[in-house]
Amino acid sequence: MSDLLLSAQHLTKRFGGLAAVNDVSVDLFRDRIHAVIGPNGAGKSTLTNLLSGDLPPTSGRIVLGGHDVAGRSPERISRLGLGRSYQKTNIFLPFTVWDNVRLASQASERHAAWNPLNWISAASSQRQVNQRCERALELAGLTARAHSVAGTTSHGEQRQLEIAMTLATEPSVLLLDEPLAGMGQAEAESMVALLLKLKADHAILLVEHDMDAVFTLADQLTVMVNGEVIASGAPESVRNDATVQAAYLGEDH
Fold first, then answer.
1. Distance CA 177, CA 181 (A)
2. By C-alpha distance, which of 231, 247, 234 is closest to 24?
């Protein structure tokens, strides 16, 4: 059995009388990709926001690395080993690829904010920061693009860069919100290959609309509709579930 790295139990998030997420549980294991699918408004991104600390849950428990992190800030959760990418690419376009990843690496330093030595030393001289940066770029397949301005790279490379920035914080758990959005076939195939490579050392929660990619990648599949889980299990079992087909996948799947 793979290591259980994150366990969320009975998560609920209410906005007034609306339950955007209602009693959802999910376990994330190293060397496994857990995909969450569903129509727009199903609660997938809200679930991701709860796990990452971008939103506090109304109720429920999230255990990461032995710590109950429900309601903690994104910064504290990140330092416990969780990395997250967003639907919208979130990078510094005027900076080089290297500088984007180095900033993420610097931010993960436990005492980065208040250590006076960091104020007077050149960022390029911080050995551990640079080593994390080099490793993240290599994992993401961007070493050859390190000195390119981020704004001049392709859409697919920018999505890879966002993942590289996440990897620079050395997470054990990755939350990836639609990493294939807007990609052509070749870029999507490269991203699928990258995620398959990353899963060996990480637990991955994948929110994605590309069903071909989902069924290629997922070891576990959860389907959400109107904030609730309607099915969860092995991908083939979920694919053949009549309720899922009626609510989301349709006859072609």
1. 9
2. 231
Measured distance CA(209)–CA(169) in Å, rounded: 27
Instruction: Give the three-class secondary structure for 9.
Output: strand
Q: What is the pLDDT along the chain (253 residues), one digit of tens a residue?
A: 579 999 999 999 999 999 999 999 999 999 999 999 999 999 999 999 999 999 999 999 999 989 999 999 999 999 999 999 998 888 999 999 999 999 999 887 755 444 555 544 555 557 899 999 999 999 999 999 999 999 999 999 999 999 999 999 999 999 999 999 999 999 999 999 999 999 999 999 999 999 999 999 999 999 999 999 999 999 999 999 998 988 776 655 4
Question: How far, in Å, CA of 6 to CA of 78, rounded?
Answer: 13
**Rounded distance, CA 145 to CA 151, Å?**
12
**Distance, first Cα to last Cα, the chain:** 29
CATH of 1-81+171-253, one of 3.40.50.300, 3.30.950.10, 1.20.58.90, 3.40.50.970: 3.40.50.300
Q: Which residues contact 142 (CB under 8 A, 6 or more apart)?
A: 97, 157, 160, 161, 164
Q: Is the dihedral of CA 209, 213, 216, 219 positive or negative?
A: negative
Return the domain boundaries, the chain. 1-81+171-253, 90-170
Q: Write out the two tokens for 234.
A: 């092995």
Q: What are phi and psi of 121, to 5 degrees?
A: -100, 145
